[in-house]
Amino acid sequence: MLRPRLRPVETIVVPDPRHGKVIVLRDTQGVAKGHAVIPPQLVPMVARMNGRLTCAQIAKEASRELGGEVPVDAVERLVEQLDEGLFLEGETFERALDAVRAEFVGLPARPASHAGGAYPGERAELAEYINRSCFDAAGPRKKREGRVRALVSPHIDPWRGAVGYGHAYGALAASLAKDESADTFVLLGTSHAPMREPFALCSKGYDTPLGEMPVDEAFLAELAAASDFDPYADELNHKREHSIEFQAVFLRHVLGGRAARIVPILAGLGEEQSSGKAPRTTAAVARFLDALRSGIEKRNGRVVIVAGADMAHVGPRFGDATPHDGKKRLALEKTDRASLELATSVDAPAFWEHVAADLDQRRVCGLAPIFSLVDVLPSAARGELLHYEQNVDPDDGSIVSHAAVAFYD
Q: How many Cα atoms occupy the beta-carbon half-sphere of 233 within 13 Å?
């Protein structure tokens, strides 16, 4: 703790009745049990916890920024609190990480960690909510030729994304009703926690209030054998990650008692996103995607690919100075739709290039899973945008946009 370093955690700005705005640190990896709320006067200290400065140096620089003396012991107390809360790198966090990892390894299935919060946790209530607030709210579905071979669904919480989920899984339900062969579902999700490797598999089935979605062990073994990296190195990221959990819930609902298996894959592609380079120029990424495509093809029409992926994240909550006005919202929708049109055209490189060009401004967190889905699709697949929506935060006007897209054979 001589040179404190903040862990790579999610940072959002939220309104606060006392301070106006505060920064909230959230551990998307699921090691810390709570959040850390940082009021404005502490931000200059926390922002300097980069592993290079001592507490005395942090106090000196923060004093200069704030225009008043910041005592060293105040910085030391803050460091101690963040360390106890597991938001700093070091021995305290490493011990907690080892304990959490050991607990996760021993579980028979990955628990439904967001049940009762992001969606109803009781079986009958959840089924009723999906039917009424998602499927019914999405309205009647057009009859379409062909089978759904892939799906882009939101991963925003089902309370806010109900209509989008209704469009996505309504289309899948209609397809499954006439396609008895589909029994394997590749679930590609965004990893909101940092990853060491480009993809992360999960060896455990996903539990839901509606029943478990077991994994396809043979498919997972094929992917692991073909990988140039350890695809289980970041398996713990699955513990609290909602982007796949929400898909497992809706999938279990539309399948009912029908037997099926999932292949849960978190898509990080962190190096590629930070550099903007095309993912397939990284040999390990190309090899993994080739193995995924091969596994899908050898199962001869039995596989449906699902990407749990939101689009843009803009506004004060995500670091912008002001919320989008009507003109900016229209421009955002135009840009989002242009990206989605490239996806529906099954042009993975063009989709990546278009989104990566303004990733720092739009913050499209679904870039990696949507790219991966489109990349492994057969070129003959045809995509259709079913729904587009901008969810606006009533407190500060921040926006999360998301879409439902179906790909047919």
A: 13
Q: What is the amino acid identity at position 37?
A: V
- Count Cβ atoms below 10 Å from residue 46 Cβ, excluding itself: 22
56-60 contact pairs (CB < 8 A, 24+): 58/4
**DSSP-assigned letters across all residues of 146-211:** S-EEEEEE--S-TTTSHHHHHHHHHHHHHHHHT-TT--EEEEEEE-SS--SSSEEE--SPBP-TT-
Q: Which two tokens stand for residue 340?
A: 């989605």
Name every residue whose Cβ is closer than 8 Å to that of residue 179 and which is 6 or more positions away in sequence: 147, 148
pLDDT in the model for residue 15:
87
Residue 398 has pLDDT above 70, yes or no: yes
Q: Are 353 and 279 in contact (CB under 8 A)?
A: no
Q: What is the DSSP string of 268-318?
A: --HHHHHH---GGGSHHHHHHHHHHHHHHHHTTT-EEEEEE-EEEEESGGG
Element (H, E) at 304: strand 303-308
Contact 384, 409 (CB under 8 A): no
Tell me the residue length of the chain: 409
Biggest CA–CA distance in the chain, Å, is: 71
Token look-up 């062969």 returns: 181
The mean pLDDT of the chain is 96
pLDDT(1) > 90: no
Task: Write out pLDDT tens, residues 120-132.
Answer: 999 999 999 999 9
Transcribe 322-347 into DSSP letters: S---HHHHHHHHHHHHHHHHHHHTT-
**pTM of the shown model:** 0.93
Assign 47 to helix, strand or coil.
coil
> Computed over its alpha carbons, how large is the radius of gyration of the chain?
22
Integer Cα distance of 127 and 211 in angstroms: 12
